Model the fold of this input.
Amino acid sequence: MRGLPKHERRWASDTVPEKSVVSTGTSPGTESTSAEEFVEVTLDLQADDTIVLRSVEPVEPSAVFSIEDGASAGTATPTTSASRSPSSIRRSSSNKFRQFSQELKAEAVAKARQFSQELKAELRRFSWSHGHASRVLSASTSLNGGGVESALAARALRRQRAQLDRTRSGAHKALRGLRFISNSKTNGVDAWNGVQANFEKLAKDGFLYRVDFAQCIGMKDSKEFALELFDALGRRRRLKVEKISRDELYEFWSQITDQSFDSRLQIFFDMVDKNEDGRMTEVEVKEIIMLSASANKLSRLKEQAEEYAALIMEELDPERLGYIELWQLETLLLQRDTYLSYSQALSYTSQALSQNLQGLRRRGPIRRMGRELLYYLQENWRRIWVLTLWVAIMIGLFTWKFFQYKQKSAFKVMGYCLLTAKGAAETLKFNMALVLLPVCRNTITWLRSTKLGYMVPFDDNINFHKTIAAAIVIGVILHAGNHLACDFPRLVNTSQYDKYLSHDFGSHQPKYIDLVKGPEGVTGILMVICMAIAFTLATRWFRRSLIKLPRPFDRLTGFNAFWYSHHLFVIVYILLIIHGTFLYLVHRWYTKTTWMYLAVPVLLYAGERALRFFRSGFYTVRLLKVAIYPGNVLTLQMSKPNQFRYKSGQYMFVQCPAVSPFEWHPFSITSSPGDDYLSVHIRQLGDWTQELKRVFSEACERPVAGKSGLLRADETTKTSLPKLLIDGPYGAPAQDYRKYDVLLLVGLGIGATPFISILKDLLNNIVRMEEQADSASDFSRTSDLSTVGNDSTTPNRVSPRRKKPLRTTNAYFYWVTREQGSFDWFKGVLNEVADLDQRRVIEMHNYLTSVYEEGDARSTLITMVQALNHAKNGVDIVSGTRVRTHFARPNWKKVFSKLCSKHCNATIGVFYCGAPVLAKELSKLCYEFNQKGGTKFDFHKEHF
Done:
């Protein structure tokens, strides 16, 4: 806009009809009307001192009117009579209007002059689509034969419309975006002190070189972006610099952290506009898209940068001038919420008006502690009573043996060392028997479906197994330590051997070596060695290969080492039975109780292993499809045996004889119970999965056009696929999802696998129930009509009994991953759910943590391209699905708060599968929100 008046105004909208030529006279009311055309300008003076241009329309000379400075009540006095009444200018009664009355007239005249100079051609009408874009509806014909002039005029008019009121909520939110530094302390002294400290480390001869700029300001993960930022700031100084001083760095830093949106926008524009002509061409837009994609590790986006650059040009340059200007980029950014409105269908669509605020009142410390204790008991009462019973049994066994051996004559020589060793031995027998029960998976799966599942936390079976193992370690230390370090030395050195111990150890007093090399000593020492190896290699450091050992000791780490070393317990149990048979101080067979403790658990576990062996041969499967996806994920789709019945959320064991004829590994079932196939998704996390991927890679080929995955194979593949054996299904926490009103499913990376089956199963059940309800309604309507036709006085008949409705009404699926290629794993499932879920029962949210949070300058353009592409094609550019991908990590507190608002007094099942880190945060949030009111969160975790 040329010739801005002293008091700048923001023009919100205008409308110029076709064939309107504006007079260049000084005042519409003072010039002769015989040979000139006039326009009628309608203005609104807002309360915030904003002038809104409502319309500019051609009028007949007879309708020209003037504004009287002294007119009262804002009356407009026409100079001549007219057939139609002219629009009046609404005025404020305040003195502010009187002060600006002359200025308003001057602005109107200035606008008229501007239109007369620019609109010399017949213009096309523009429509305001979705509140963010103007389109040309018809081809224009230039009066002077200049198509470029027409396009320039059209763009000038569109620019007038694009000057938004920044006090609006949506624009105000966008003004906080486009940050170059994400740290919350960016604009504080602490942040600059950190930059200064980096300068001291990186500076050479008092200068910071261009290559070190990214690391200095905290952008070392976005080096290319930081270098472009450095060059843009240098161009603003009309210099191409390779090094800067501390003062220049401070100047750069001040511009980067400027709180002004206009300042940040100008810097961003300068990064793109390398030739400094004030224009962004399609080539320059492509470069900034590739730069943003590189900073966010989006390799696929870089490959399609040209396509997305053309999309932006199509949106912002409808006049086809071949470039866009700063104001157009501003329009794109300020209307962020409008562009993202497409995602509302798959996001939160409504908010409850009432907030779940019960429990937010201040409480005294005693009352608060009491409530926390009550909540803890509610959450953990099943674990508490099981552990209490277990500890009580061990205390009882230890006490029983302690006092029993206190009556023996050996106590006179060996003292309390003997009593402690024998008490610990009794708890060892009990725990060595009990430790087998939590790993009897078939038994656990059956028991958790019975009423006992309400009393016993079967989902914690592995944790209980580990707890028992810890008690065994303590028992071994007490038993073996007291015998070797206390009892045996006292035995061989006592002078009262014949009086107290000859009837137990023989007529000759033994030496220490005799006791150690006897059956009791040898079996005991061998058991300790085997158990020490098995326990050590089962620890997280060795099992997860967190400890790096040199060759050839590196074979002691990994899952294989854990798996094979655990089979040493077969030897341990044999030695334990032998050890319990040759006891020094017990002579009657029925008092040697070791075999009594072990008989039932060992037989049960052996039966389970035998069942798995025979059942795996009975469940013959045929591989239907194999695919290898980015992120080292192998997908196996196989035929489903007729006898294989499972629930969503359960898992099964898989064995590949080509990799190992002995190893079985558990994987969540990703297919729905209603599917005619079984599928699992296996990520390469250890030595076995790495070898499995290698074996199948040799049988796979590159996919044909239209097929996903890096490598694929199916029944038509020439190479024969390796044989596969399965065993299961086995119970898991997620299978109980039907008990809850609302579901919050959180998957971290490959941890999304158990929830994919749940989503499909939940959707299938809801669709089936709707069909049954519709058919029942039709039947009832037909029955009522028949009843009325036969006898209107008869009582209403009872409609057919409906099945109990599904309790779960809504599900929220949050998938957090750090690799863009991860979305290929379940692309088909996500699109299927999005297509079939017409009632929006399931809300899906993808989060990509490799991308900087929304509002960061490095991801701003990606967000805009993402919205534009989805609005046009219905596909998210990051995931390739209909589900919008959010950037960075979810705000879990905000997620829980929204669920509380939407589902007051509901029982929400929170199911998590992934690394243990996030489990702690989710568990804590469940605890916090359960304190606030009626909404109940029940947390379940499943680690891998």
Observations:
- The longest helix spans residues 365-406.
- The chain has a mean pLDDT of 74.
